[in-house]
């Protein structure tokens, strides 16, 4: 009985994961620009590399779940006003290959 329950749970999880994947009609073509706005907390700033690590909520417009990730910043002058543990609002762009923060405040 336990084995049957475990198999049913695995099948349910696999089905959920399968249906959560973006369909072919949602596939991102390289070069097509998508943008999203989000909020988060700055974890790390790397001025030399022009990167900021943000712990952020989900970004549905980019099919992105909540996570902590490092992103390049288009304008490095924005990095000077950031501090670790600071709450921020940001706008991010995705061209089918790379993410870049275009605005952050």
What does it look like?
By secondary structure, the chain is of the alpha+beta class. The protein has one domain (28-104): Beta Barrel (OB fold (Dihydrolipoamide Acetyltransferase, E2P)). 18% of the residues lie in helices and 37% in strands. The protein starts with a helix and ends with a strand. The mean pLDDT is 84.
Q: Helix proportion of residues, in percent?
A: 10-25%
CATH fold-level label: OB fold (Dihydrolipoamide Acetyltransferase, E2P)
What Rg do the Cα atoms give? 18 Å
Structural class: alpha+beta
Tell me the series of helices and strands, N- to C-terminal.
HEEEEE
Which of globular, elongated, flat, extended, rod-shaped describes the shape? elongated
Q: Output the CATH class name.
A: Mainly Beta
Give the helix/strand layout.
Elements: H1 2-20, E1 34-46, E2 51-56, E3 67-72, E4 87-94, E5 99-104
Antiparallel strand pairs: 1-2, 1-4, 2-3, 4-5
Short description:
The protein has one helix and five strands. It is of the alpha+beta class and 105 residues long.
Give structural attributes.
105 residues; alpha+beta; OB fold (Dihydrolipoamide Acetyltransferase, E2P); 5-stranded antiparallel sheet; 5 strands; elongated
